Every structure is written in structure tokens, then in C-alpha cells.
Amino acid sequence: MTDPAYDDVSIARLHGEACWDCGAVATTLYPAGAVTTEAGKEWEIRKCINHRDLTDQQERGQACVHCGVILDNGSAIQLGARLVNRGGHLTSWLPRACPPHGALP
Fold this sequence. Notes:
The chain is mostly beta strands and about 100 residues long. The chain is built from 2 helices and 6 strands.
């Protein structure tokens, strides 16, 4: 997708060193596709957990937020409450992870 607005984005976001949506750098960042500047340069972008595109199961805590594997209550690791913006309203979200990803920030 080409958009002149991408030419004004910070270099940290274009290099995948900051969340594309919020600019966060002190967090785990996940691949989120690519953008192309007017000059034709394609950049892979990354997003933090709060802006990453998640499946319904990941949002409900039925699947790992990192890899999408279906979780059971015995092995799921609670990642703690987080405030997220949903439709312009702050709400709490309780993400869960599988054991291998439970130690990730």
C-alpha cells in the first residue's frame, strides 16, 4: 500500500524498532505487514501487543496471544491485566499465553 503519509513516519517505526501505531519501544514487537513509501521503498512494520491484529480466540484468552495455539485452563499463563483502547474507550484486557511464550514480556 502506498500512502504519502508514510513518508512522514519516524525512522524507528519504519525500521521496525517501534510500534507502528503508538511508537512504543520498550515492549515486544510483532510483525504486522509492510508499507511502501512514495519513493517505492518497502518497510516491514511491527506492532506492540496492544495494536497487534489478534483473532477472536486470542482476544478472549482462548488462544496464546503470541502464537495462536489453543489454550486449556491447566496450562495457560495469565499475562496480567492491560488497558487497551477499544473503539475509543479504555477497557481492561486479560491476555493469556502458552507455556513457551509465557515468559515473554
